[in-house]
Amino acid sequence: MAEPGVRHLVVVLGDQLDASAAAFDGCDPARDAIWMAEVAEESTHVWSTKARTALFLSAMRHFAEDRRADGWTVHYRSLDDAGNRGTLGGELAEAIHRLRPQTVRLTAPGDWRVLQQLRETVACAGVPLTIEPDRHFYCDVRAFAAWARAQPELRLEFFYREMRRRHGVLMDGDAPAGGRWNFDAENRAPFDAQGPGAIPAPSQVEPDAIAREVLALVRTRFADHPGGLDHFAWPVTRAHALEALARFVDERLPAFGRWQDALWPEAPWLWHSQIASALNLKLLAPREVVDAVEAAYRAGRVPLAAAEGYIRQILGWREYVRGVYWTQMPHYADSNALQATGDLPGFYWTGDAPMPCLADALRQTLDLGYAHHIQRLMVIGLYAQLLGVEPAQVHRWFLAVYVDAVEWVEMPNVLGMSQYADGGLMSSKPYIASGRYIERMSAGSYCRGCAFDPGQRTGPQACPYTRLYWDFMLRHEPLLAANPRTRLQVRALERLDADERAVIRREADAWREAAVHRSRPPARTA
After folding, report:
1. How far apart are CA 264 and CA 191, in angstroms?
2. Distance between CA 226 and CA 43 in Å, rounded?
3. What's the pTM value of the predicted model, to 2 decimals?
4. Strand 8-11 and strand 33-37: pairing?
5. pLDDT confidence of residue 449
6. Alpha-carbon 189 to chain mean position
C-alpha cells in the first residue's frame, strides 16, 4: 500500500551531512521528509576500502538519528535491508513511488555521476526536482567559471589571492598579513636525522554503538575489499568533528607549517589536521575551519607561516580543485596528456612494494584509509606517474582507498596535479623528482637499509624512483624543455651520452614490465 504523500522529499547524500544545507531551505519537518540510502554501488563502482565505506555509513546513520531527534521524519534505507536495490537511482525511484512527494529537493551533489543518475531518476518519475547550490563552499561554480574565463591560464596562486581579498582572510587592510601572500619557503623543511621527535597523539574517536554496528556490517558485506578496520577512529558526528578541529588548532597547527612536507617511517599523522574527511562529509564548514586558524594566529598562538600554509589548502586549493572539476567535467575524467597506458601494479592493493618508502605509504593507506599529502603526491602518485600508469587507473585507486576521497576533490588532485594528465590545465608543471627528494624529505630514514641507492640511476642498485625519473625526462624531453618550471631539470640530460640514455631506457622498460607482474591484486567481487 502506498504511504501518504509528502510535500518535499529532501534527498541527503552521504557527503552532504549538513543540517543547514540549502536543500532544507523553506522546509518544515511537519510537512516534509528526509530520504537517505546506503547502497552497494557506492562501495563497488570503485573497489572501496573497508574504512572508506565504514566512515560514510557510520556518519550517515548518526546524521539520520540527529535529524530524527530534531523532529524530522527520515526515510532511511540501510545496506542490509531486504530488497535493497543497490543503487541510488533504484532506491530513490522506489521511494518516490511509495511516498508520492510533490517535489524532490536536493543540494547539488559533489559527484558528476551521482548528479546525472538522480536527475534521470526523478525525471523518469515525473516529479519536479529542485537542485539548490551548495553553499558549503566559499566560491560557487558559476563564480569560479566567471573567474576562470577572465584568466589567460588557470593558476592557484591568482585564485587564492582573489579569495583572500574577497573574503577578508589573513588580510591587514588591503595587504596580506605579514606583507606576503605565500610562506611556502618556511613550510617545506625536512626532518633532521633524529626525525620528528615528540608528536601529539592523533585525534581519534572511539566507535560508539552505531559505529560498531557499521564496522561489523562492513566486515561481513565487504569482506573481500581491501584495507582493515582495526584502527577505525574517525569523527563521524558534528560534535566529534568540532573536537577534532579544536585539537588540531591547539596541538598540531603551530608546527604544521614547517613540517607539512616532511616524511618519516611509520609516522602517519605527524602534525596534519586529520579533518579532511569531516570537511568532505560536511560535518565541518570550511569557514569555521579558516576562522579558527586565523583566530589562533591573531591571538599569537600560531605562527603566520603555519596559519597561511593551512588556509591555503582550504580557502585556496580545496576551492580551486572543485572549480576545475565542475568546469571541466565530464571530459576531464578521460584526461591523459602524457599518453600513459601502463597498468597499476598489484602491490598498490597489498602494500608489498619493493621500496620501503612506497611500501610504508601503501600499507598505511590500506590500514588507516589515510596518508598525508606528500605521501600521496610525492611517493605514491609520483611512482605511478614515473612508471607510466594509465591516469584513470590511478584515479580509481585514490578514490577507492582514502576515507576523505570524494570525486570532486580527488580527481583533479590525481589527474591534474599528481599525474599531469590534463597537460597543465590546473598545475603549471609535472611534479616529478628522483629518489633524492624522498631521501631529503625523510632525512634518509627510508633509504638506510634499502636495497636501492637514490643516487644511482642505472645498475642493480639504482633506486626505482631515480631510474624512472631519468627515463621520464627522456620520454618527455620536448615537453619539459618547453616548460619554464622544468627547463633546468631537463637540461641535466645534456650530461648523458647516447649509451647511458639507452641503458636508462632499457632498464626502465625492464623494471616497468616486472613491476606490473610483481604482485597481482586480490580477487574481487562486485
Report:
1. 8
2. 11
3. 0.95
4. parallel
5. 87
6. 23
Q: CA 155, CA 422: separation in Å to the nearest integer? A: 13
Q: Is it the case that residue 1 has pLDDT exceeding 70?
A: no
pLDDT tens readout for residues 54-110 = 999 999 999 999 999 999 999 999 999 999 999 999 999 999 999 999 999 999 999
Name, in order, each residue with C-beta under 8 angstroms of 14's C-beta and a sequence gap of 6 or more: 36, 38, 42, 56, 57, 59, 60, 281
Peptide bond into 330 cis (omega under 30): yes
Longest Cα–Cα distance of the chain, Å, equals 80
Higher pLDDT, 161 or 185: 161
Q: Is the per-residue pLDDT at 522 higher than 80?
A: no
pLDDT (average), residues 35-39:
98
Is the four-CA dihedral 407, 411, 412, 414 of positive or negative sign?
A: positive
**Would you say 511 and 467 are in contact if contact means Cβ atoms under 8 Å apart?**
yes
The pLDDT > 90 percentage for the chain reads 94
**Beta partners for 175?**
172
Mean pLDDT of the chain: 95
Helix orientation angle between 304-311 and 286-298, rounded to the nearest 10 degrees:
170
**CA nearest 502: which of 456, 480, 470?**
470
Q: In this model, does residue 394 exceed pLDDT 90? A: yes
Q: Which SS3 state, helix, strand or coil, does residue 199 take?
A: coil
- Is the separation of the CB atoms in 228 and 50 below 8 Å? yes
The single-letter code of the amino acid at 227 is G
Q: Which residues contact 175 (CB under 8 A, 6 or more apart)?
A: none
Instruction: Answer whether residue 519 shows pLDDT above 50.
Output: no
Strands (E), 44-181: 73-77, 103-107, 129-132, 171-172, 175-176
**Lookup result for grid cell 627547463:** 487
- Which helix (H) or strand (E) segment is 11 a member of? strand 8-11
Rounded to an integer, what distance in angstroms lies between the CA atom of residue 364 and that of residue 267?
Answer: 9
Contact present, 123 and 96 (Cβ < 8 Å): no
On whether the CB atoms of residues 235 and 277 are closer than 8 A, the answer is yes
Cα 17 → chain centroid: 18
- Spatial CB neighbours of 502, under 8 Å, sequence gap ≥ 6: none
The 8 Å CB, 24+ separation contacts for 352-355 are: 352/518, 352/519, 354/451, 354/464, 354/518, 355/446, 355/450, 355/452, 355/463, 355/464, 355/465
Give the residues across from 34 on adjacent strands.
10, 74
- Mind listing the pLDDT tens digit for each residue in 343-375? 999 999 999 999 999 999 999 999 999 999 999
pLDDT in tens, 232-273: 999 999 999 999 999 999 999 999 999 999 999 999 999 999
> Given pLDDT bands bounded at 50, 70 and 90, which one contains residue 518?
low
The beta-carbon contacts of 251-254 under 8 Å, at least 24 apart in sequence, are 251/200, 252/200, 253/293, 253/296, 253/302, 253/306, 253/307, 253/310, 254/301, 254/302, 254/303, 254/306
User: Cβ distance 12 to 36 under 8 Å?
Assistant: yes
> Is residue 519 within 8 Å of residue 478, measured between CB atoms?
no
